[in-house]
């Protein structure tokens, strides 16, 4: 039975569009995830992992060559990813599931596996322009409002593994309204009125609505190692299918097995969330992309 009153987490998310949860991960769990992440980044930079976010491209699809540098590693849940079971244990954890159900006011058996990626220090300074993940910049104010008034059937988060992550910029409350004329006229990397820099230390997480106006600022001299994930809800339907499948998950997801997960509850949750994603992707074909650059 779900509570009739919104949780404090959900109230904050609905109001501001994001919420920081300090010490989401315990200090004891950080070293293993840092080690696995460092290895994944090394593989990606050296051309031994083809699923990457490459400079200077903001949106998928990304090329598989790291020649121009990278700013992220894709598909931590891929069956061929070294350390996959460790990443999967963090993604399907009780902490993530309970937070997601509180934020979305759903039960755990409604959750769907989506994306788990790794954001890292770029090879050169790099910035993302202001955007909403699933609403194009060309949308009119009316089109924005239609999409923003629909339920957000997802929970998205950044989980810092090292101190001093100040990459994410957000405009609080912008998920509840269309862009102002000033925001529409602003240059892609210009500071916006009300902009907030989200500051995370190792183990901290920020959960946010992916249609909040946000962008990223990446410095080549500042270490970054941040897990970037999302979980969905079955009721998200076709819109969430595009948001997830545009990243190429459908190419490998049916190969996944979860026997390496040690905790039975986590293993059971992984199977159920994975099964729903596989079902969601059947017959979808080319889902297209939310943005083009």
Walk me through the structure.
The strands form 2 sheets. A 7-stranded antiparallel sheet has the order 1-9-6-11-4-3-2, with helices on both faces. The longest helix is centred in the last third of the chain and has 18 residues, at 264-281. The protein has 8 helices and 11 strands. The chain is an alpha+beta fold.
Shape: globular
Strand content: 15-25%
User: SSE order, as H and E?
Assistant: HEHEEHHEEHEEHEEEEHH
Main sheet properties: 7 strands, antiparallel
How many angstroms separate the termini?
Answer: 44 Å
Average residue-wise pLDDT: 92
Layout of secondary structure:
Elements: H1 8-16, E1 18-21, H2 30-45, E2 52-54, E3 70-73, H3 84-91, H4 94-104, E4 111-120, E5 126-127, H5 141-148, E6 154-160, E7 168-170, H6 181-185, E8 196-197, E9 205-208, E10 214-218, E11 225-233, H7 237-245, H8 264-281
Antiparallel strand pairs: 1-9, 2-3, 3-4, 4-11, 5-10, 6-9, 6-11, 7-8, 7-10
In short:
The chain is of the alpha+beta class and 293 residues long.
Tags for this entry?
alpha+beta, seven-stranded antiparallel sheet, 293 residues, 18% strand, single chain, 11 strands, four-stranded antiparallel sheet
């Amino acid at each position: 039975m779900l509570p009739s009153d919104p949780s404090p987490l959900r109230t904050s998310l609905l109001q501001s569009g994001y919420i920081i949860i300090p010490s989401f991960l315990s200090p004891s769990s950080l070293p293993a995830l840092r080690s696995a992440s460092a290895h994944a980044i090394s593989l990606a930079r050296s051309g031994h992992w083809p699923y990457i976010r490459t400079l200077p491209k903001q949106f998928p699809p990304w090329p598989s060559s790291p020649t121009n540098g990278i700013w992220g590693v894709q598909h931590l849940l891929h069956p061929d990813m070294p350390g996959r079971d460790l990443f999967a244990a963090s993604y399907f954890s009780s902490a993530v599931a309970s937070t997601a159900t509180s934020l979305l006011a759903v039960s755990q058996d409604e959750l769907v596996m989506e994306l788990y990626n790794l954001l890292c220090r770029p090879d050169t300074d790099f910035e993302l322009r202001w955007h909403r993940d699933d609403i194009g910049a060309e949308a009119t104010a009316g089109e924005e409002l239609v999409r923003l008034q629909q339920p957000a059937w997802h929970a998205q988060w950044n989980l810092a593994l090292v101190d001093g992550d100040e990459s994410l910029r957000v405009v609080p409350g912008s998920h509840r309204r269309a862009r102002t004329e000033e925001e529409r006229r602003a240059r892609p990397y210009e500071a916006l009125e009300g902009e907030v820099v989200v500051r995370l230390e190792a183990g901290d997480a920020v959960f946010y609505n992916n249609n909040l106006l946000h962008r990223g600022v990446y410095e080549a001299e500042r270490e970054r190692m941040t897990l970037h994930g999302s979980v969905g809800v079955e009721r998200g339907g076709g819109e969430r299918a595009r948001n997830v499948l545009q990243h190429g998950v459908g190419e490998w997801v049916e190969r996944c097995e979860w026997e390496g997960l040690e905790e039975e509850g986590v293993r059971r949750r992984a199977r159920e969330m994975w099964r729903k994603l596989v079902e969601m992707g059947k017959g979808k074909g080319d889902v297209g992309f939310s943005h083009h650059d």
